[in-house]
Amino acid sequence: MKGTGVLRRAGLVAGAAALLFSTLPAVTAAAAGGTARPTWCPTVEGHRVDCGSATRPLVSGDPALGTVDVAYAVVRHRSPGPAKGTVAVNPGGPGEVAIDRAPVFGEVLKDLLGDHDLLLVDPRGTGRSQRMPCGVTDAEYRLGTREQQRDAVTRCAANLGPRARGYTTAATADDLDAIRARLGVDGLTLYGLSYGTYLMPVYASRHPGNVRNVVLSGAYPLAFDPLNRPGAQAVSLSLRRICERSAARPEAGGRPACDGDKAVRDLAATAAALRERPVDVDVPLEGAAPFRMRLTEGKLAGLVYEGASREVGADPGGPSLLGGLPHALDRFTAGDRGPLLDLVRAEGSTGSAEDQAPYIAVVCNDYRKPWKAAAPLPERWRQYREALAAARPGAFGAFSPAGYLEGPTDGGDVCIGWPRENTAGPQPTHPRMPDVPVLVLSGDLDANTPDANGLQAARQFRDSRFVSVRNTGHVPEMERGGCVVDLSTRFIRTGRTGDTGCAKAVEPISVTPVRR
Questions:
Q1: Which of 239, 300, 358, 431 fits as disulfide partner to 95, beta carbons 3.0 to 4.6 Å?
Q2: DSSP state of 513
Q3: CA 360 to CA 150: how far, in whole Å?
Q4: Nearest to residue 478, comparing CAs of 466, 469, 465, 490?
Q5: Concatenated DSSP letters for 92-131?
Q6: Torsion on CA atoms 324, 327, 331, 337, rounded to nearest 10
Q7: Do 123 and 271 contact (CB within 8 A), yes or no?
Q8: Measuring CA to CA, which residue among 30, 16, 54 is closest to residue 178?
Q9: pLDDT tens digit string along 84-121?
Q10: Ramachandran angles phi, psi of 438, nearest 5°
C-alpha cells in the first residue's frame, strides 16, 4: 500500500532533482559536541551543514543486543539570527535514506530554508545508520512470485534473529527525539512523505510535547485497512478521472482520449485473464541478467495501484504509466499483449540490488494484519482466509480479493510467516495525539495512499486540514508548479494554508489515446 519507496525510483520532485549535484562547496561546521565533521556529511549550496550520530540501544531494555549508531544532518537556515523552527523530514519507505538526498531537499524546500533548519535522519538500518542486510534484494522481492516473497520474508526474519525486534517505527521515532534533544531543539515540525506519514504520527503520540506542527503528504492512518480496499477502489476512480480530464488538454480538442468506464471494464477483463493464465515476461535489470517475472493478477494490481501512482503530475505532458494504462488494457483485451508488457518491463526494470531488511522488518513488525500476531501459522492462514471471505462483493474494485492482495509488497499475506518470536509488540492504532496544527496532502490520482486514506489520517488529529491536489499521484509535491510546496511552507510558517485554489488547477496528465 505504501510502496517500497517514494524517492528510490522517482526523486522528490523530478524537475528539482535534475538541477542538482553540480553544487559549489558549502560552508560546513563540526557536528554537535565538537567532533570532526564526518566524511559522509552532505554539501548543500549556500548552507552550513552539521552532521553527527547518536548511539542508541538496538532494543530498549535489552542491552545484550547491543547498540546502533543513528546518523543525522542539519541543513542550517540562510538568514542571520536563530532559526524560527526545525523541520524533520522523512522521505518514506520504510527504509528510505534522507541524508544523501540533502541537496534535493535543499532545492525543493529552499524558501523554507531561509529561516528554518532542516533535520534529516537516516532511520536505523538504512543509509548512514548502520545498514542492516538480511539477504533479500529489492528486485528479488518486488518481482518474485507471492510464494517467493513470503519465503523471502521468513528468510529475512531468520537472518536477523533477535535483532528484528530493534527495527520498528517506534524505535525510529525515539531515535529522532534523542537527536532532537542532543541538538537542543525545543520542538520539531514533522514533515512526513508516504511511510513518513506513519512514522510522524507515531513520533507525535510518543513525544507529544516536542511537536510544533505536522505536514503529512501521501498519507495513510495508523489504523489503515489491512486488506487495502480503498487502494483497490481508487484504481478504478483514477482511470475514470484521467479519461474524463484528458479532454481538457490543449491537444485533445475537447475529445477525451479514452472512456473511463471502458478502461475499468478492460482492467477487470485483464485481471480475470491473468488470474486464469499468467504471462511470463523477461524484465531487464541494470547490471544483472533479466528477471523472468510471472505477470499475475496480483502483479497487475501492484502495477496499477502502486507503480502507476508514482510521479503523476511531475511532467503532465509526458508519457506515464498511468496515462498509458487505458490504451494498454484496451490492446490486451483485443489480444495484443505488447503495450501492457512494455509498461511491466519499464516499471520492473527499476529494481535494484538494495537489501530490503529495513522495509520488511518495519512492515512485518508494525503494520496491521488480518490475523493475530500471536497465532500459530495454520491459525493465521485461517484468519486471513476468513477475512477475505467476509469482504463484500466489489470491495476490491476490478479485482478478485485474493488476486488483488497478492499485489502489495507490504500487505496481503506477505508477512504471514514472520515469526512470533523475536517480533516487536504491535504498533497502537489509536494513540492519543497532541493538539497541534496538522496539514494532510493527497493526490487525487493516487491509488497507493488515496484520498480516503488521507482523510482518515487527518481525522487522527483534532486540528487538521485536508487538501486533495488535482491530477497528482503519490506524494503531490511531485507536481512541477510548486503549488504544494508553497502550501506546506506557508502552513509551517503560519499554521494556515491560505488560498488552496492552486491545488485544483494542476494540469491534467497526458493519456495515450485509445483507438475508437
A1: 358
A2: P
A3: 11
A4: 469
A5: -TTT---GGGHHHHHHHTTTGGGTEEEEEEPPTTSTTS--
A6: 0
A7: no
A8: 54
A9: 999 999 999 999 999 999 999 999 999 999 999 999 99
A10: -135, 135
